[in-house]
Fold this sequence. Notes:
The chain has one helix and five strands; from the N terminus they run βββαββ. The chain is mainly β. The radius of gyration is 14 Å and the shape is flat.
Amino acid sequence: IWHLGQCMTMLPLPDILILGDVVEDFTKDMNEEMIVVNPGNFSKDFSFSQIFPLRMKSQSCKVDN
């Protein structure tokens, strides 16, 4: 759907982009100005992401059963 491509543009870029997808968790440092985080599926393995916005860092965490 190329005629709607402008809808996928985010300008200015956000500092942190948090996705909510059911795929496995990941953190991607796009550059020193932006972090992309997908915290994963909490109900599946009790994992989540802890975000430190002032340091521009993210840490994966897990709740022990």
